[in-house]
Amino acid sequence: KVLPLVPYSKTINPVDLDSVEVTYDTTDIDDALLIKEETSLEHQLGACGILHTPLSHPEIDSHSKFSSDELEEQLWICIDNYLRITRKSVQAELLSLLPRNNKWPSNFLLESTAAFLEESSDASFVRVAEHYPARRRQKRLSYAVTALLEQTEVGNLRQSLLEIPSTQARLSTIVERFEIANDDLSDEFGEFM
Asked: Using CB atoms within 10 A as the burial measure, which of 2, 80, 92, 115 is most buried?
């Protein structure tokens, strides 16, 4: 059934919809759907070189075989190491994305920092809820965490991250950058553990 015709002026008489027969040619729609499957926007942008997955650093193992959950956990461990080496404090906005109920290494400090901030009377720190979707949290993390690396040699990430279409590829790239930064900094400052 077609939506009722509403005249735009008082001079036009409405059409009796029961007397009007409407037919659709679905071949154009079917053809358009087939073309869309073959050439999605992401595929077209990748083919034009606008979107791309960056190559892995040759000195670091590729993280592409890991799931987004594993990459997120590895990234938080790298962040913890980075903050310990540089003696920087973590931003509350970033720390609020730390997943709950993970089994972290014994020397992992960010969980205790997040727990302390949650228990304090400071209402400005709000950690994401347990039911908050992991993929959404990981996507936010994949963009927000690069603020820590902005002033380093490996920190020029903004444009390249915008060109990476998947969260998993962004997380993998950022883990590699943090591993490089941590290796460079630990060579410069010595062991931190």
From this structure: 80
Tokens for 113?
A: 């920092």
What is the pLDDT at residue 24? 53
Determine contact, residues 135/69, Cβ cutoff 8 Å.
no
- C-alpha 112/C-alpha 37 separation (Å) is 47
Contact 107, 83 (CB under 8 A): no
| Cα distances (Å, whole numbers) of residue 14 to 5, 36, 157, 177 | 7, 37, 60, 66
- Band the pLDDT of 95: cuts 50, 70, 90: very high
To 10 degrees, what angle do helices 134-144 and 68-86 make? 40
Lowest mean pLDDT among 11-15, 64-68, 140-144, 186-190: 11-15
Residues 132, 33: Cα–Cα separation, whole Å: 33
- The pair of structure tokens assigned to 150 is 């902005």
Number of other CB atoms surrounding residue 81 within 10 Å: 22
